[in-house]
Amino acid sequence: MKTTDSKKTATAKETTPRGVTKPKSNAASGLNELFEDGLKDIYWAEKALTKALPVMVKNASSVELKDAIDNHLTETEEQINRLEEVFKIIGKKATAKKCDAMEGLIEEAKGMLEETELGVVRDAGIIAASQKIEHYEIATYGTLRQFAETLGLPEVATLLEQTLDEEKGADKILTEVAVNAVNLEASEIE
Questions:
Q1: To the nearest whole number, what is the mean pLDDT of the chain?
Q2: Fewer Cβ atoms within 10 Å of its own Cβ: the N or the C terminal residue of the chain?
Q3: 98: left (phi over 0), alpha (psi -120 to 50) or beta
Q4: Closest CA relative to residue 129, chosen from 164, 103, 105
Q5: Which residues are CB-contacts of 101 (< 8 A; sequence separation ≥ 6)?
Q6: Using CA atoms, how far apart are residues 109 and 174, in angstroms rounded to an integer?
Q7: pTM, whole model, 2 decimals?
């Protein structure tokens, strides 16, 4: 009977229950690893945005929208520098890891450009796509800031909070541009 019990235990450890995703061999096992993985992910995302945002500006017709995106591009470049500072504080090399979520959001934004004509309707689409990106960043930076606090990294938490505030501000500006001009004008086009 002991032989059977030990075989059952060994088998249970080797198999993953149905419906539970089996982790990769390099999967994070602690909060610190999960935190570092998240930093690499958002670092890639911010770098990808420095290429995507100028495309949005070129396709926007509203001066207010162009200005909002241009200003956020400058902030994004500063956020990349801030992330590099975070990596330095935690003693890690700044490394980017492909962010599937951001890649998907950028691809969706490109598709929206192809599906709209230049003008206020495209501007409304650019705002919608940009706000999806901002909301992803807000969620990510909020989580990373909380991880930093939990891990006892107050200086890192402060840097991530600064970026979180900028992302919230960019979202607010996009809403103002949409509500005060773009959406109203776009609604008048049939």
A1: 91
A2: C
A3: beta
A4: 105
A5: 45, 136
A6: 15
A7: 0.86
